Amino acid sequence: MKRVVLLSTGGTIASAPGSDGRAVAGVLSGEDLLAHTGLEGLMEARVESVFQKASNAIGPAQWRQLAEKCAQLIHSKQVDGIVITHGTDTLEDTAYYLHCVLDTSQVPVIVTGSQRVPQAMGSDAYANLRQAMELAASPHARGQGVLVSFNQSVFSAGFVRKVSSYQLNGFDAPGLGPAGMLDEGCFHLLQRPRIQPLLPNPAQLPRVDILPAYGGAEAAMARAVLQSAPDALVVDGLGRGQVPLAWAPVLAEALENGAIIAVCSSTLHGATHESYDYPGSLHELVSAGAFNVSHLSARKARIRLALSMAAYGKDISAIAAAFSW
Fold first, then answer.
1. Residue 167 falls within a domain, yes or no?
2. Is residue 140 domain-resident?
3. Active site (annotated) includes residue 12
4. Which of 12, 88, 90, 112 is catalytic?
5. Number of folded domains in the chain?
6. Is the distance from CB of 159 to CB of 148 less than 8 angstroms?
């Protein structure tokens, strides 16, 4: 039988209603969840509780801890698959961090969660967990990078985003769709994700902030973020990577003074590109020393930029290469 390890981290999938009826995160153990999946006798499953947190409490320290645990399991050669249960609000962040640092060529790593607590009518908790466990046991899931299993759909962690705050089909890869589907325990691979170069799992990440662009934004906002002295900045740009006109001189000055600034698109799908040449355009920013991160969302770009800086310091050419395909 396939050997699958469930790493429990809390979230809605491990929640239970409190005295006021609102969900309390991390109440249920991984063993509690696994007991309702009907997988006994179909695989050799065991549970390890890594931490029990709501997903808004999960960040770099927990990402690093999870990556270390997964790496230990992979190197032990005693497991055939790994499943991580996680709260959905920051699931895409954790999944992408792991996607950047873990080699899944021999052992699939699957992240899942639920939109409804297990006790709710029509809950997706146990079904999502069962499907994730089945996916982790599939040899076809190897070498695809970290995968997110949700509502019978399988997504690459490189593209997945939470697209609904409450619906059961809460995740998607906008413009691309799922990498595969799960049907009666079978994984059907539809597209093979391209994997960016792996990066080390560092002891500490530099501080990288996100500056979201919007129409009519004043210079004061961009200036305030830069004056708070982040190690680097991701600008969540407009369209192909433009910024509000008032930000252009502020960002240009910061770049001249050595700031590391990456630019992505706030659209749900599509890459940044130097299509235009006017004040505040991506071309102007890149000419001043910024670099574009192509298809990545701001949240993913922030993670990859932090990992790249942890590995390469302020070597801009090496950092930019880490974003290449």
1. yes
2. yes
3. yes
4. 12
5. 2
6. no
